[in-house]
Hints:
Two copies of one chain form a homodimer.
Chain A: H1 5-18, H2 26-33, H3 37-49, E1 53-56, E2 62-65, H4 74-81, H5 101-125, H6 128-133
Antiparallel strand pairs in A: 1-2
Helix pairs in contact in A: 1-3, 1-4, 2-3, 4-5
Chain A binds a DNA duplex through helix 3.
GO molecular function (chains A, B): DNA-binding transcription factor activity
Protein name (chains A, B): Rrf2 family transcriptional regulator
Pfam families (chains A, B): Rrf2
Amino acid sequence: MNNGRFPISLHILTLMASSAGELLSSDYIAGSININPVLVRKEISNLRNFGLIESKEGKNGGSTLAKPADKIRLSEVYHAVQQASLLGNSKNKPNPDCPIGKQINLHLDHLYEDIEGALLHRLEKMSLADFLRQFQ
Amino acid sequence: MNNGRFPISLHILTLMASSAGELLSSDYIAGSININPVLVRKEISNLRNFGLIESKEGKNGGSTLAKPADKIRLSEVYHAVQQASLLGNSKNKPNPDCPIGKQINLHLDHLYEDIEGALLHRLEKMSLADFLRQFQ
DNA sequence: TGTACTGTAATAAAGTCAATTACAGAATGA
DNA sequence: TCATTCTGTAATTGACTTTATTACAGTACA
């Protein structure tokens, strides 16, 4: 997974955390990230499905955090954008007649689970507020 | 980084570890992974550059481990295939006029380094021999 | 009721990754 | 010596994925 969505989602959430209470438009956010507003709205839609963001339609509408920044763990952000596995999906279909090939996906999966656990542990320790606090 | 190269490289190395001493041809390896032999040779070339594999050209040639499987850490494999960052490269060029945008790549990089450190710690604890030992 | 937003679908453009083709060079052994 | 069987590598194609763009309906506001 080279997931370009994680940095985008984190950027969106950081902007909202830094101007808590205000409604930010997708155009404004897109201007900060320097990407297309429609992609921002898609990511917001996804983050909203995970309960991290609330939106208001219509004039003077926009989006804001659904809960305080110190209640949002970066692991939640990871879960929201994560679909593929971390070190690369073995979409490969190894040769079932090879004693190594027929077993390797099982053992790769175990390895990935182990590693992803370590990663989530780190992300769980940091809240969005912690992340924002690093900015001056 | 959805790096499909990590599983491929690990598959190659596992095959070599399981038949230590023998020279394996790229065709044979490609048959086990079920991918193109040229891609195998590319990965072997890369692993060779990192001192993990030795190759012999010409008829009856092939490749084998450059050192015992218990002397190869999975972190070395990771380093060999790793190019992009873990949670997705911010190829984005955020708006330098935005107080968040102009700093976020720096803080993302720090976060990635932290997480990658945790990941490497796990991979360092497991050798290729440990990985192979799981196979029956 | 016009304006400024969101939400979403559909399409196009760009980028990435793997397969394939091609071929030179190296080692073997008949 | 020379055909064979490998590696090494470049170049091209094709498949797939991601992002940008266009388009437009729906919503809220003033």
